[in-house]
Write a structure and sequence with these properties.
Chain B: Pfam families: Fer2 (PF00111), Fer2_2 (PF01799). The complex is a heterodimer. Chain A is built from 19 helices and 30 strands. Chain A is of the alpha+beta class. The longest helix of chain A is centred in the first third of the chain and has 28 residues. Classes of the chains: A alpha+beta, B alpha+beta. Chains A and B meet through α7 and α18 of A and α1, α3, α4, α5 and α6 of B.
Chain lengths: 754, 155
Amino acid sequence: MEKTKSNINRRSFLKASALLGGGLMIQFSALAKFDLPAKSVDGINAFPWNEINGYIKITSDNVIKIINPNPEFGQNVMTSLPMIVAEELDVDWKKVIVEMGPHDSVKLGAQFTGGSNSMRMYWRPLREAGATARQMLMEAAAQTWAVPVEEVTAKAGVLGHEKSGKTASYGDLAAKASSLPVPKGVKLKDVKSFNVVRNSQKNVEGAKIVSGKPLFGLDYKHEGMLIAMIQHPPAFGMTFKSFDGSQALKMPGIKSVFSLKLYEDGFEQGGFDTRTFNDVLVVVGKTTWEVMNARKKLIVEWVPAGDVKDTMAGRGGKREVVVPGELENTADQHAKMVEYANKPAQVLRKDGDPETAFKNAAQIIERTFNAPFLAHNCMEPMNFFAHVTDEKALLVGPLQAPGWTEPTLVKVLKLPADKIEIQMTRMGGGFGRRAYGHYLVEAALISKKVNAPVKLIYSREDDTTYGIYRPMYTATYRAALDANKNLIAFHVKGGGIPEHAIHPNRFPAGAVDNYLAEGWQIPSNITIGAFRAPRSNFNAAAEQSFLDELAEAMGKDPIDFRLELLKRAKDTPVGKNNEYDADRYAGVLKLVKEKSGWNGPEHKKFSRGVAAYFCHSSYAAHVVDMTTKDGQPYVERVFSAIDCGIVINPDAATNMVQGAVVDGIGNAMYGGLTHKNGVVEESNFHKYRLIRMHEAPKKVEVHFIKNDIDPTGLGEPPFPPVFGAVANALYKASGRRFYQQPFSSPQPSAIPAV
Amino acid sequence: MIKLNINKKIYNLDADPEMPLLWVLRDVVGLIGTKYGCGVAQCGACVVHLDGEAVRSCVTKLSRAEGKKVITIEGLSENHTHPLQQAWLELDVSQCGYCQAGQIMSAAVLLNENKKPSDQDIDDAMAGNICRCGTYLRIREAIHLASEIQGKERS
């Protein structure tokens, strides 16, 4: 993303072109000559591009550049989204250059990385962009050659007219094409004929990554750039009363020390304006190390903030909310959850007559599942560059949702949107955390205050202790069985701090005659938000463990039991609004059953656990094979079956599923954030345990359902069911159920056996 | 002035000898391939070679590097041709990519000392490098592949 000055200017490039002969070959010989990676080139921005549409630019020398609209945080959209354009444009993928687009919702759409959304959101627009551009190039050829457009062909970047024998490169006609009217309703390719999409293509930034080229927000540099760090209160629920920055200011390299108010009183917060601390202290200086040292010299009097009023806008309209001032402790949070769990809750869905069914049950099974707050722990801590003047603002860095941050910047900076330029760098992880743009707003206000270009950097400790966490959750599941061990009623009542996780219309809703889902929540000052399917990853642990236990109580195989329920949901669904497709759900279970050799005697040496889940429009199932290693439970092998519709880039998709499995094992076994008097107790990786190499499986075998359904998303769906499959394998390994995450923590004792 | 040999180039630096090598590299020299992850030697994103040893540059004072040869990811090879870099690209290991320079630098020392590491050797040597995206399986595979490439290049 860094706009470095290229060592090739247009003149030397053209010279190189002339020397070598013209056309595509030349271009890429020139790139090779200057040792520029062919896929992602900053240096040739100087050349005159013919913009066919927002996603496609072509030079007269036939260099084809595809703009990736959506921020890249490791899900590989920098490669897979441009692949879709290249497919319909019909160009040789090897010769395409890819570039990250700036924030530009007019040309590049909604630009939001999150909710496993990239493919769902861009599949159609990018296909249309590619196909429309191809049509415009064909039209340009038809006009130039004075032949009917129906007789013009366009394949692999070459236009042709068979009868006259005329051919031209896309580049030859790009200028003319870019001036033509944009056709509507252009025909798209048959998905069965794809040759770029559905074929594995390498990460376009792979070479830059392994050679340490600047890619990330922390790598971005700007002339005269200063470094800033904030000092936030040490605990949730605290603020500063007074501070003395004079000692910090005397430290080497320090330019400025001040306090900063993020939002003015009454500021109407949208859903992604979440911020924990509205008032922070700021140290600005020359280098990161100097600023880190100076920050230690701040003398601050911190005090409890008490209850704080916030004004919320967005979904649900404008309203005042009170954020409680309590300095929270994890033990109290647990106690409070038990208290709330026994109170009446909001009914989210009710089918049939669950109360009577439970009253008449021969057997009731009731289990409670708990999970802690989780921190994102993106490897690249939060940071952003800002250069704000009275007239305009430039912001550069790692961000998932520029379209949601821009309106906030407009309000806070009092600048019109067209004077605010946001560029997105590659992100060192995101997982939902970087959808919350408070750190951009902080950077922008700091730059404005010191009147200089500034990079705001969070230390690891800042990043972990100022989080927008996955909430703390609990849920109690109850099942009623009749005398023949048939499931006659199902009840889930879930709560959380500060939100519950219940999806009332998901499986097994729709499969049970008498069904009740309820939710409650406890207000808190601990800020929460997106986290790789935050609610689903808890539900898939709790519900999928519970179903496993239920299957056992009913004397059924856990996969067969789920398939029976899904058959019921398909044949005679109970209620309306069932969110899932029972066939696709059953499909991944059947596939994982087959591929894992589910009941095969050859797998006896493993403790096997299975789970499946639907979220974000896609379906995933895993079989986890557990052994012990160094006396600890170890997931040695995993079989995964996924239905996400058409798989754009198979090897990269496999990589993402493997990563989700590792991430799932890690968070299920070790993840957790606790509080003492509002202070986060796990400030860095020595206390916040993340999964490491020796804890990762030896093998994760990934299988995709083959179908022609438009892509339904992959970033989140494989993650949640890992939790449940691990819990169920732990039961097989140990003979006891695991109800408390992380599973490596002490488990509640004296759970009665089924 | 402190004299440093980084990637076979001599730098005369006017910097605090207490400053961690990580920040010297990133903020003073301008080599940003070495990453900041935790600052407390827990994640391995900042691994560089100091006279051939893997060190965590976030806790290595500049003064300790004086007179020694520092190699960073930028200096590991010309044009990403080190067997590990080839293997990483061949197997398309990276997801977000942020930790990978540190992973490769740790693995490079392993491969120097152990031409044919086992899974166990890799697990032991790489336990100090966190990958939040969970690319561990491919990292393991890539180290094996690099070991093969290295063997072929030397034979």
